[in-house]
Each structure stands twice: as structure tokens, then as C-alpha cells.
């Protein structure tokens, strides 16, 4: 199994209260289904199970991964904040390993 690396998170430096802003996240992960062969050897299954984005601890975006997901999943979505907050991304794989990254977004 590969090591679970922390997700990458791209946020604006500041946002205006009530205005939508773009959030981008990417997880570097091979997403092996266990069906691919390298020569005669089957590559073992190594898949992410979920991605959860929270704002000050409250979940705002969740993904449940399946076999159809490509390697290095990339997600783009929009949020609105009324006050400064910490945005955190947590990924979990099927072996229950987790990785987390967080950034503070100031609201002007």
C-alpha cells in the first residue's frame, strides 16, 4: 500500500462576507482497484474511501469514492462564509488511515 499523503487545498487569501468563493482540493493517491495486473502479479487494492471538508468542524462537503474514481482525485466546489473560519480536508482510505490539512480563511 502507498502512504497516505495529506490532501492539497487551494483557497483565496481573503474572501468577502456572503460571497461565493472557489475551493479546490486534490489528493495524490494511486486509487488501485485490485483488478490491474503488472505482468503475472495482481496489483493490490488501495482505494480512498472518503473525503470530508469541514468549516470550523461542521461538514460542508463529502465524497464517497468508488471503483470508477481516477488516480489523484481533484474536486472544485464553492462556499460562502459570513466570518473567518478554518477549512479542513480529511481523507480516509479503505484501511482506515487518515490524512488532514487545514487553512484559515479571513473574511474581509
Describe the structure in your own words:
With 108 residues, this protein is mostly beta strands. The protein has one domain: Immunoglobulin-like (Sandwich), CATH 2.60.40.10. Helices cover 0% and strands 49% of the residues. It has strands at 8-10, 20-26, 37-38, 41-42, 48-55, 58-64, 74-80, 85-93, 98-105. The strands form three sheets. Strands 6-5-8-9 form a four-stranded antiparallel sheet, with no helix packed on it. A three-stranded antiparallel sheet has the order 1-2-7, with no helix packed on it. β3 and β4 (41-42) form a beta hairpin. The radius of gyration is 16 Å and the shape is elongated.
- In total, the number of strands is 9
Unreliable segments of 5+ consecutive residues: none
Strand content: over 45%
Helix content: under 10%
> Quick one: overall form?
elongated
Order of helices and strands: EEEEEEEEE
CATH architectural name: Sandwich
For the record, the CATH class is Mainly Beta
Q: CATH topology, which one? A: Immunoglobulin-like
Through-space gap between termini: 43 Å
Using only C-alpha atoms, the radius of gyration works out to 16 Å
Arithmetic mean pLDDT: 94
Biggest sheet descriptor:
4 strands, antiparallel
User: Please, how many helices?
Assistant: 0
Sheet/helix structural class = mainly beta
* Major sheet: arrangement of strands: 6-5-8-9
CATH homologous superfamily caption: Immunoglobulins
Number of domains: 1
Amino acid at each position: 500500500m502507498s502512504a497516505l499523503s495529506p490532501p492539497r487545498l487551494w483557497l483565496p487569501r481573503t474572501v468577502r462576507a456572503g460571497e461565493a468563493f472557489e475551493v479546490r482540493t486534490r489528493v495524490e493517491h494511486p486509487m488501485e482497484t485490485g483488478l490491474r495486473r503488472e505482468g503475472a502479479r495482481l496489483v493490490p487494492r488501495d482505494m480512498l474511501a472518503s473525503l470530508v471538508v469541514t468549516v470550523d468542524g461542521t461538514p460542508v462537503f463529502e465524497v464517497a469514492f468508488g471503483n470508477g474514481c481516477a488516480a489523484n482525485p481533484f474536486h472544485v466546489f464553492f462556499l460562502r462564509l459570513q466570518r473567518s473560519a478554518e477549512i479542513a480536508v480529511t481523507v480516509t482510505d479503505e484501511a482506515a488511515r487518515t490524512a488532514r490539512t487545514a487553512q484559515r480563511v479571513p473574511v474581509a
